[in-house]
Task: structure prediction
Amino acid sequence: MKLNILGCYSATPRTFTNPTSQVLEIKNHLFLIDCGEGTQVQLRKNKIKFARIKHIFISHLHGDHYFGLVGLISTFRLLTREAELHIYGPKGIKEIITLQMKLADSWTNYPLIFHELTSKESELIYEDDKVEVHTIPLLHRVYTNGFLFKEKPGERKLNIDAVEQANIDQAYYRKLKQGADVENKDGELIKNETVTYSPDKQKTYAFCSDTAYNESVIPIIKNADTLYHESTFLEKHAHLAPKTKHSTAKEAATIAKKANVGKLILGHYSTRYDDLDEFIREASPIFKNVKLADDGKIFKF
Amino acid sequence: MKLNILGCYSATPRTFTNPTSQVLEIKNHLFLIDCGEGTQVQLRKNKIKFARIKHIFISHLHGDHYFGLVGLISTFRLLTREAELHIYGPKGIKEIITLQMKLADSWTNYPLIFHELTSKESELIYEDDKVEVHTIPLLHRVYTNGFLFKEKPGERKLNIDAVEQANIDQAYYRKLKQGADVENKDGELIKNETVTYSPDKQKTYAFCSDTAYNESVIPIIKNADTLYHESTFLEKHAHLAPKTKHSTAKEAATIAKKANVGKLILGHYSTRYDDLDEFIREASPIFKNVKLADDGKIFKF
Result:
């Protein structure tokens, strides 16, 4: 998986910082997660091909997470896109976009498909043969979901020496990769696990922004390889967190630790902080493998 | 007057070009004209104080002219603005903005006042003691207005030698500046024009974007000091202009000439052109005093 941060600051776009948006590359898919104002320019700056984006996930309807969406949809139209575009986001997002298209008398010439979310339980919202996406219900001032991206199990790998020694016909290799036991040329049943290796571990990425400290996400994101968790505040401003329903770096680290994730990426910093290293200093005593998101940064895992 | 171009390219925001937005400073007012995506960042880059903007004029509801508006309104809220903000634009603009505020559960803490436009005739939409703003109905694919900004006549200037020679009491100077005839200390009536000079010429600025070639604007913008007129295309692509209801540089120059304006500023270039000097070469044989708009450029007149 490859995660390209396009923007990771809270509130308003500024000269050198962008509101939330990120691109996750997974099994040859590009998923766009949130789409603050300026995202289409950030996509250009990060040299991401617009045509590869087929699915956009919007966490909630605060402007710093979606004000760039209508412009991106409109730009796709101007670029004469033909491929379907799927938008996953809170109920209301379809009305916002279609109202603006109606008043501009500019409908997309490609299929624009909205998947409006209302559930307060985690649900499977996207699935193909390689990837699943589940919602992560978050605790914010408006209806908000994070998203859990999970690779599906890949094929088993042939232990080619064992396969040949077991005298299995090549015609059965496909079945072996799929996990089946097969008969060899002598008519003996060969147990799959004796001639194959387990597939690569399935990677998972959990995106949690924006949210107050919320332990109910832990079972959903348990053991994720990478967790992006908002840390709008430092503990010295912890009194602001419950009211605004945001988290501190310490709280993000606590969630990461309790969920036993592999890596924590912090972001959604309040613009009041100049020294972002303070976020690392606050989080790392609780959870060691912590990184700072920044606009344009790429994480591979 | 001072015109600060924030963005002047058509269609989509790109890495180094911005969609339409400009700030007109006139008699100590700052008027924002159109507000494409990224305008708030352009305001920051051009060091324009957000608090000074009290009136925003939106020409039409195509995204490259207003997708930045909702974000700017939202940023004003985050900056704890208290002053009224007036938005002038086509009917529908209020619904677009209020729908997004409703779904974000984020209402402005300052008065947000919409002046929705529907008239197809030029009308006076703003007036104070120093400035008037009139609409300029344009010919585009959706309902569109340009805007004519007119200084009101200033006070007459005292010819102080003549005033003293005419033996006029200082108490009457104010009336003289306002154009009245007054009695002097000897009870004689003094004709105003014998002791005062005319006020400075009233400046006018006409903004015309987006529009097909449309001679019906000429009586409205007649003798304007400066005309911004869109020139999406060059004549070599003139066949695209009627269909998209845009103009060529030659057409913009023709309007400038027929309206006898002082200066023509071209903008709203299609992104297909790399060499903008071609716009000057096309327009200048028809209208000599022609300039190219560019993002960040300032014109004083």
Q: What stands out?
A: Chain A touches chain B at residues 11-15, 37-38, 40-41, 44-45, 61-63, 67-68, 70-71, 74-75, 78, 90, 92, 95-96, 99-100, 103-106, 141-142 (CB under 8 Å). The mean pLDDT of chain A is 97.
